Amino acid sequence: MKTAPGASGLIMNEPLLWEKGKKGRKGMSIPAADVPLATPEAALAGAGPDFPDLSEIDVIRHYTRLSQWNFGVDTGLYPLGSCTMKYNPKTNEKQAATPAIAAAHPMLDDEYVQGTLRIMYELQQYLINITGMAAATLQPSAGAQGELTGMLIFDAYHKSKGSKRNKILIPDTAHGTNPASAALCGYKPVPVASNAEGMLDVETVKALMDEETAGIMVTNPNTLGLFEENIRAVAEIVHAKGGLVYGDGANMNAIMGIVDLSKCGVDVMHLNLHKTFSTPHGGGGPGAGPVCVVEKLARFLPIPHVKKDGDTYRLDWDNPDSIGRVHGYHGNYGVLVKAYSYILSMGAANLKKASQLAVLNANYIKERLKGALHLPYDRPCMHECVFSDEKQHELKVATLDIAKRLIDYGYHPPTVYFPLVVHGAIMIEPTETECKEDIDQFIDTILLILQEAKENPQLLYDAPVMAKRKRLDETLAARKPCLCG
Ligand SMILES: *Cc1c(COP(=O)(O)O)cnc(C)c1O
């Protein structure tokens, strides 16, 4: 490895604004009032919050310095598995900020907002085409809320059949939000063990599926980064007992334009626009988790729903079977515009190519690192690959040490200790937006760290030494967070 992208020079220290402020400093000067003050100045003193007095340059430097401590997709490779931290083209931000779109009032009558309704309608159609489903709602504001919406649709469907169901099957390779969303809806999650290949096993599902079970929630590709090859057979078993199949489509980045989920037997699924379709995320949103369904479930979708009559778009409220609203107004509209802009600017062929490159990049990393790191499931992966620290056990080096040492070399660590089915997991998702040179540099850095682990493991135990914050006591940090700086 020739150079690392990390740098430690010229990173400024920055105190709290309260420590920095000095009585009498001002951000701007206002001419003296030529009328008497309505409230005497003395009466104002001491009222309100204790804000420090600061000059303009104090404030600008404070926030600029804090922003330079930040690390994001625009700074460097962010290989966080299960998150799709890909680069988001700036044109999508620009379209979402178009004044006519950003300032449109959500309570205007349909006739005044034909353009914004059209964006919603067409985005629904694109998502339907991408997934192979029949209808979509754009309301949910996150993947997990999409899951809850899906579970409410499951419930409405079973009630419409006069059937009472209280359980749901959840594979051990599903995302953690799946059992949580199902439980929130009143279903008891029943874990399904994956087989030695990390796959959902047909016989295991057959043994667990009964007529009290509402269906199954399948994350596909699963959290091992593997495509659930038995999905069709599993869906047939679930359908035969009157159940439904939920597809967690947060990992759609691996299969856009390649897999038709309806042909896999999926009845309801969500997409994460903030992962696959170009909205920067991490740190809490906003996001969007549209839900797509097959024809027979369309009547349960949330209201209002955007419809098109001839050349006119309208919000349709008239749906007695709907589960109701799951979000105020139209969902996180800005995120919807970014996804719409992303899909239009990419086009169908390039969306497919993005998935192919995401898969190629992950497999390249898997192949180059598998000699140095233990690869528990050695088979072609999708958009991410999962290693473990098993080979480093004898050196007394753990996943956390490797992750922390990466920070010293200027990399955001990958996802660690998830999925839970792999002990000491290291889950890497490069995404399609990284070029070969940058991926090679990342791989070389990991190989260098693994060499350090053999020669001088103390370097890893102490890491990070270059970052502003050194190694934290993670337990203490979680139990007694210090939130004041
Ligand atoms: C991210 C993710 C979710 C949850 O999505 P949020 O938008 O964070 O609620 C669900 N399933 C999978 C597979 C994911 O990767």
UniProtKB/TrEMBL annotation:
It catalyses: N(6)-[(R)-lipoyl]-L-lysyl-[glycine-cleavage complex H protein] + glycine + H(+) = N(6)-[(R)-S(8)-aminomethyldihydrolipoyl]-L-lysyl-[glycine-cleavage complex H protein] + CO2. One of its GO terms (cellular component) is glycine cleavage complex. It holds the Pfam family GcvP2_C. It comes from the Bacteria. Keywords: Oxidoreductase, Pyridoxal phosphate. Its cofactor is pyridoxal 5'-phosphate. GO terms for biological process: glycine decarboxylation via glycine cleavage system. GO terms for molecular function: glycine binding; glycine dehydrogenase (decarboxylating) activity; pyridoxal phosphate binding. Residues 354-455 form the Glycine dehydrogenase C-terminal domain. Residues 111-302 form the Glycine cleavage system P-protein N-terminal domain. Its EC number is 1.4.4.2. The glycine cleavage system catalyzes the degradation of glycine. The P protein binds the alpha-amino group of glycine through its pyridoxal phosphate cofactor; CO(2) is released and the remaining methylamine moiety is then transferred to the lipoamide cofactor of the H protein. This is glycine dehydrogenase (aminomethyl-transferring). It comes from Desulfopila aestuarii DSM 18488.
